[in-house]
Amino acid sequence: MARAATTTDAFNAVAEPRRRQILDVLAGGERPVNELVEALGIAQPLVSKHLRVLREVGAVHVRDEGRRRLYRLNGRALKPIHDWVSRYEGLWSERFELLDDVLDDLKKEEDDGDDEQRDGGRDAPH
Amino acid sequence: MARAATTTDAFNAVAEPRRRQILDVLAGGERPVNELVEALGIAQPLVSKHLRVLREVGAVHVRDEGRRRLYRLNGRALKPIHDWVSRYEGLWSERFELLDDVLDDLKKEEDDGDDEQRDGGRDAPH
DNA sequence: TTGACATATACCTATATCGACATATAATCG
DNA sequence: CGATTATATGTCGATATAGGTATATGTCAA
């Protein structure tokens, strides 16, 4: 099985930085594709495709205005992300950072400097 | 170019539901791979692979304990997600929902029932 | 040592990208 | 009508999966 489609849910749609950028621009108000192309500085077909993904997960709404199509942000679609990640909010508070450090210290003591041997140091860069 | 690697950042790592599930379990405290396999009900190699991705983006820390490896959540890695999505918090408040409805009504009036013709009704199911 | 247990990695297949390019569709203007 | 502008779609190439299976690595126990 391949990776889930980007149109599966908001999580997948928003994993692409360009799509987040599009939403950031739209946060400033309704915009035609034209301006999004300019703002992002990438090819127009690519913008249209990103917009399609955002449309399919409901992150944007479209409105026809003459030969232009005005895109508008729909924040509701991001709520699941906010709800999920909010459960982890506070884990990076100072108090938790300290706890983390303590646990890291305990780990170091237990492993007695023999750490990172099995994993080949491929652990996260800090 | 293909899609960005899942190890590129937390956004991509967390787009996979199973990896969110793993983090959810780890939110309850340090766990060996064993228990994660049980909790998720999927094959062990798959869990190890997901854990590797989470390790590479720094979302989890590992600690060796005998022949087991204890994984621990590192909430800090999720902060960028929280920071980004929080800028959209409130867009789904009641007041904004109402504004949205008003805008949708305006759209309907403008298009005069001729909407969804070009898009073939392929818009997101709201 | 031999074996059982715990975890990680290698290999394979099917699939869904992202980006570039060409082209189609649609609306407006002269 | 034909030309221009605005946007969407199709195709192709390169790539990175997720899941399955087999296997390697590491640890403990008898």
The mean pLDDT of chain A is 82
**Low confidence ranges of chain A:** 107-126
Question: Helix share of residues of chain A?
Answer: 40-55%
Strand content of chain A: 5-15%
Largest β sheet strand count, sense and barrel closure of chain A: 3 strands, antiparallel
Query: Which chain pair shows the most residues in contact?
Result: A-B, 57 and 58 residues
Number of strands of chain A: 3
What is the N-to-C order of secondary-structure elements of chain A (H for helix, E for strand)?
HHEHHEEHH
The first-to-last residue Cα distance of chain A is 32 Å
Q: How would you describe this structure in keywords?
A:
homodimer; 126 residues; mainly alpha; three-stranded antiparallel β-sheet; 6 helices; DNA-binding
What does this structure look like?
Two copies of one chain form a homodimer. With 126 residues, the first copy, chain A, is mainly α. In chain A, 48% of the residues lie in helices and 11% in strands. The first copy, chain A, has a three-stranded antiparallel sheet. The longest helix of chain A is centred in the last third of the chain and has 18 residues, at 94-111. Chain A starts with 9 loop residues before the first helix and ends in a 15-residue tail after the last helix. Mean pLDDT of chain A is 82; it is low at 107-126. Chains A and B meet through helix 2, strand 2, helix 5 and helix 6 of A and helix 2, helix 4, strand 2, helix 5 and helix 6 of B. Chain A binds a DNA duplex (30 and 30 nucleotides) through residues 1-6, 16, 18, 32-34, 42-52, 66-69, 118-119.
